[in-house]
Structures are given as structure tokens and as C-alpha cells.
Design goal:
The N and C termini lie far apart (54 Å). The chain contains 8 helices and 7 strands. Helix content is 48%, strand content 14%. It has helices at 2-33, 51-62, 75-87, 102-115, 138-166, 188-207, 230-237, 248-260, and strands spanning 41-45, 65-71, 92-96, 118-123, 170-175, 212-219, 268-271. The protein has a domain at 126-286: NAD(P)-binding Rossmann-like Domain (Rossmann fold, 3-Layer(aba) Sandwich). Residues 29-38 have low confidence and may be disordered. It has a 7-stranded parallel β-sheet with strand order 3-2-1-4-5-6-7, sandwiched between helices. By secondary structure, the chain is of the alpha/beta class.
Length: 291
Amino acid sequence: MRQLLRRGLSLISSLKQFNREMELVLSDLVAETGAKDIAKGWVLITGAARRIGRGLALALASDGWNIHLHFHHSKDEAETTGQQITALGRMVCLHQADLSDEAACQQLMASCVEQGNLAALINSASSFDYDTSQAFSAQGMKQHMAINMMAPAMLIRDFAAAAENQSVKGAVINITDAKLVGLNPDYFTYTLSKMALDGLTRLAAQAYAPWLRVNGIAPGITLRSGDQTDAEYRQAHRLNPLSCGAEVEDIVRAAKMLLDTPSITGHTIVIDGGLHLRPPNRDVAFLDVQE
């Protein structure tokens, strides 16, 4: 227990040092270039060290947002992404948190609110493990539900309370999954958790108006997953009416539109190359598609 505590304190200390160093680098950059802070505000992006979350963090930083970058295990990737954000002339704070832990979720949002000018939240972090309707465990379901639905619910709740307390309005984007408009039973408990997140999107849009707008983006297969090859990734997109799938840049464009449009709430944008128009009865990972 003492060793675990020491490791935790060491991680906290290193993150604080990293954040201080990034602030100094940004200050020097502004001094050298004469650039002015024209930030749109701060956005908290969960799971922002890798994959879609990272793409969103870098793109929104380029668009004038300061970034609260959440990660769990990917410390090295988080620091690299943080350095890239700073190089774009924006501010970044790194936050390590286990989103399956209620207290950690509460502390994460509290830290971001304390920083000030929190304008948006993007729930991108996701647990994605394979199971089936015949073989799933209570623990697996709890893990998927905790990270994919309960953590977003708690973060949105606390964000809404802060927004109302400060009499400011904010925006939330939940990253769901395009398979929800063309269901199949593969990845059984993952799918259930994303269905819950989709429901949360609509309920939260009702519950937290007018202080928060809550919308969703439902991408199809976007990046190679696991041991999937480039050829298999391309083959999967051949199923789509447009013969192409979602790209990170597509998700970024949708996110910017949702953040910048103050009259949109309670909607989910599906980005899947049209696969929902003829959905398969299995996950694309299990379909035999020939080049």
C-alpha cells in the first residue's frame, strides 16, 4: 500500500511539473511571437492521449481551444500530445484519472472547473472489449458501463452544476457508435453501454438545458483496431454505400460544427459512409469482404 501511494504521489508530482513547464513554454512562445490569447475557452477531452481523442485535441487546439487532456494509462502519449498542443500556441493541462472510479471523475471535473473558463466537454474515452450474448460477465458489463456511460453522466452532471452556478453556458459531445443505428450482437456489453450513452445524450440535453447543450457523434470504424491489418481495414469500408468510412478529420468537422452552433442539442450525427443504410448482421471485424 505504501509503495502504491508513493507511485501515485510521484505521478501527481510529475504531472504538475509537466503542466508548469508547458505554461512556461507557452509564455515564452507568446513573448517571442507577439501572439495574443484568442482562445475559445477550455475543453475537457477524455481519452485524449490516443486515437480519436488525440485527433480531437490537436484539431481543437489548432482551432483556438485550450485543452484539458485526460488519460488513464497512456502517460507517454499524453505528454507527447501535450507538447504538440503547446507547439500550436495553446495551453494544455494533463489529468490522469481512472474513469471507473466515481471519486476520480468528480476530482477531474473539479480540477477543470477550478482552472476557469471551461466551455466544453467531449466524452471520448471508451472501454472496448469483446464478449458475446452467450458469454459475458457481470464484471465486464460493469467495466463497460462505468467508463462508457456512468463516467460521462457524472462529468456532465458536475459540468452542468458549475455552468449554472457561474451563469455560463457550455457544450457536451458524447462519442457513441454508428452500430447503434444498425445493431448486431457482437461486442455485447460494449454495445449495451453505448446504447446507454446514446440515451444519456438525449436525457441530459433535456435535463441540463439551458446551461448545457448535449449532442453526440456516432462514428463507424475509424482507425485500425487491435491486430487488424491495413488491408482488412480497407476491406471493411467496401461494405459502405460510399465505399469509404469515417476519418478522424470527419469527426473533427462534426465536433467543430456542434461546438460552434448554439441552437443544436439532443442530436447525434452518424458518420459511417452510409453503412447504416444497409447494416450487416455481424460486426465488420467478422465479415468476409474480398478486395
